[in-house]
Here is the input.
Amino acid sequence: MGRVDIAYFYNLPRAELLRHIQQMLAVLTDEQIETCFAKETKKLGKPSSRSLMDWSTIPLRHIAIQVCYDGTEYAGLAQQPNREYTIEELLLNALRGAALIPQHAEASDVHFERSGRTDRGVSAAGQVFSFYVRTNNKGMGPQPIPAPDPRFYRDRRDGLTPPAKPSDSATDDRGADGDLVNAEKEPELKQVPQEQEIDYVSAINMRLPETIRVLGWAPVDENFSARHSTSSRRYVYMFGEVGSLNIRRMAEACTKLVGFHDFRNICKPSLDSIKTFERVIFSCFLEIDGQPYDCENDRMAMKENSTLSLVVCGSAFLYHQIRCIASLLLHIGAELEPPSLISDLLNVEQFPGKPDYPIAPGELLLFERAEYTSTRLPKFYLSGPSYRFLTKNIRFLQSKALARARVYGVALSLLSEARTCQSVSSGGPPRACDHPLVGITMTHKITDLCEVYIEGGLSLFKLEKYRRITNRPFDGTLEHRLRERQKELAMYKENKKHGEQ
Here is the structure.
């Protein structure tokens, strides 16, 4: 039998490859098979001590970590089958590399959870993860990972348990320190000397890219869930310079978002997992240069390069909800839409389906922090060396970001100088966008503005008269789309069943 080219097997389907392996094993003797395995073992070398760890004898503990990351370089936060360069995938690889979890452990094996999901390009300053890891505390002893208490495992984001509607008499049930006044008090955790524990912060950070940093860790009880124990989540959307946006109209629209509403028209509905679109927003307001905007302030008192941002705090959010809110506020601030647009879209009887409008870019969205009651999540801890290293490292990253911002600032200044030197006979300078996200030109009147689509921070124009969002068509009601989706899934399952038979 002639020698077979090994490249032949690379392109074979899995079933065909297994058939070839079975045929070869059938003609080989036991001695030949043992010789082949001995050669491969010699090539690989001795197994590492980490791969030989008996995890049934190793004590584990439940911890939470606080993480910041620049999401512009990654394919989103959540671990996905077809995307390897995600935040969660890198964190899990770092945990495996530090031998804090078994080498082949998946996220579900160690109860790996996050406080909030962020999309591609979205960054976070205070993201929280919880999971089980190896510990040096021998007093805990080896124990199986327990199932989480269902009392604290309410799937509020996916709508399995709708959020409670706040009453008129008590709009906020949190005390001055942020704890829930009527919340069930959890038993205090048994404290152990932190100096004797593994330096989780350093062990994980040394195996992560510099744009992902663990800021601290905290011991939590077995019923704690980074996702479902969260009392509130806080997002910030950076609009950039104020420009000629009507801030007063935007602030008026923000007040209409606060409270308990059905946000099916202000999100991207997920027909496969979402059961309800009712959510609670605790606060929604604008900030100028980091300070809350006051409607009494005179607009002329703002600096020429003042920056505008949107701050939204709520119990849980729907897919693309913040980016849809930012897009609507941009339309309102550009005086393309009235502030009453928010009330109209929240009225699901008047608008049973979502009209067609663009969402704001994800690169300008920041998941700032997740809030927990002090009884559920103690303060985060990190060692002295980790604190000194992170302080220097994050300040350096901040300096790099400021340097990049300076580059674009100087480029805009040079562009302005070049534009003023351009001769009028050549047709004049190109029309400048009044705001980079909205793309309203100063040479147009409000009634003659063209329609704007926001894609990746760029403004694309259709040369036609602007059409109000409430006058645009929608692709059927949500209930109709859900019924059609259920029919598609039923047909898919039926076809798959017949195919297997």
